[in-house]
Amino acid sequence: MVHLHEMPDAARNRLVNQDLPHYDDVECVAGPPLSERKIAIVTTAGLHKRADKPFTHSLGEYRIIPEDGGMSEIVMSHASTNFDRSGYQQDLNICFPVDRLRELKADGKIGSIATNHFSFMGASPPETQEAAARDLAGILKADGVNGVILTPV
Fold first, then answer.
1. Closest alpha carbon to 133 in 113, 111, 148, 144
2. Can you say how many angstroms the Cα of residue 57 is from the centroid of all Cα atoms in its chain?
3. C-alpha count within 13 angstroms, C-beta hemisphere, residue 48
4. How far apart are CA 64 and CA 132, in angstroms?
5. DSSP state of 45
6. How do 116-120 and 38-43 pair as beta strands?
7. Cα dist. 82→1, 69, 89, 131 in Å?
8. How much of the chain, in percent, has pLDDT values that exceed 70?
């Protein structure tokens, strides 16, 4: 992984000096005990099913990863010279902890697992993600999801 001081000036300045949107503060809301929650995974690892269209940088889109789908069919289209994918290639749970989530369910630590999980492409400008994030929030609510594991990459 590249450190900021190792990046070319233009790339470093674009990353460090980008304008970020402002969001109003929203208080956290108490929910049911973890043992009663329905949990989904949301990642920015650029993961998708092999048959899905690969991500296009900066489009503000997400992909659906069905809980009951074959995890061996998950691929990563997030590519960057500044990103080491070797950990993901050895263990999907590095960025998409689906096996850990299933263990929590089996141990009775969580109530249930969502029907679908979701992946965005990381390193995209926040303003391109907002509409998709709002859409996804509606889908999660409709599925009764009341807990999310966020895995930013």
1. 148
2. 15
3. 16
4. 12
5. B
6. parallel
7. 5, 30, 16, 27
8. 96
Q: What is the mean pLDDT of residues 25-52?
A: 93
- pLDDT confidence of residue 18: 79
Residues 48, 65 contacting (CB under 8 angstroms): yes
Residues facing 64 on adjacent strands: 118
Helix or strand or coil: residue 57? Answer: coil
Mean pLDDT of 13-35: 86
Residues 91 and 80: their CA atoms lie apart, in Å, by 19
- Give buried/exposed letters for 130-142 (b at 16+ CB in 10 A, else e): eebeeebeebbee
Amino acid at 70: G
- Check pLDDT > 70 for residue 1: no
> Tokens representing 35?
């043992």
Cα 57 from Cα 36, distance rounded (Å): 37
Q: Are 17 and 125 in contact (CB under 8 A)?
A: no
Decide: helix, strand or coil at residue 124.
Answer: coil
CB within 8 Å of 38: residues ≥ 6 apart: 110, 111, 112, 113, 114, 143, 144, 145, 146, 147
pLDDT digits (tens, 9 = 90+) for 47-99: 999 999 998 877 889 999 999 988 889 999 876 666 677 777 889 999 999 99
